[in-house]
Design a protein that fits this description.
The structure is a single chain. By secondary structure, the chain is α+β, with helices and mostly antiparallel strands. The protein has one domain. The chain is 26% helix and 11% strand. A two-stranded parallel ribbon has the order 1-2. Helix 2 links the parallel strand 1 and strand 2. The radius of gyration is 15 Å and the shape is globular.
């Protein structure tokens, strides 16, 4: 899908979300040494292709200040 999106003319947005914050949300890979799980799959090959092809990889741990809404009752 991202290859198709990138192939068009004009401005395009191609991004992937790397779930790498087990403390605040969830972490799965196996890209970047994250645990492989049955819940999700983000392979190292996909990560490498994204970097090679100029896709944006967003890290939940490094790029998001807040993942879940703040609640007073926590």
């Amino acid at each position: 899908m991202l290859e198709y999106t990138k192939s068009g003319d004009g401005a395009r947005l191609s991004l992937l979300l790397l779930h790498d914050d087990a403390k605040r949300e969830y972490a799965y890979g196996p890209a970047q040494g994250l645990p492989a799980t049955k819940v999700g799959n983000f392979t190292q090959e996909l990560y490498d292709k994204a970097k090679k092809d100029g896709w944006i990889v967003i890290s939940m741990k490094d790029d998001w200040k807040q993942i879940l809404p703040l609640r007073n009752d926590r």
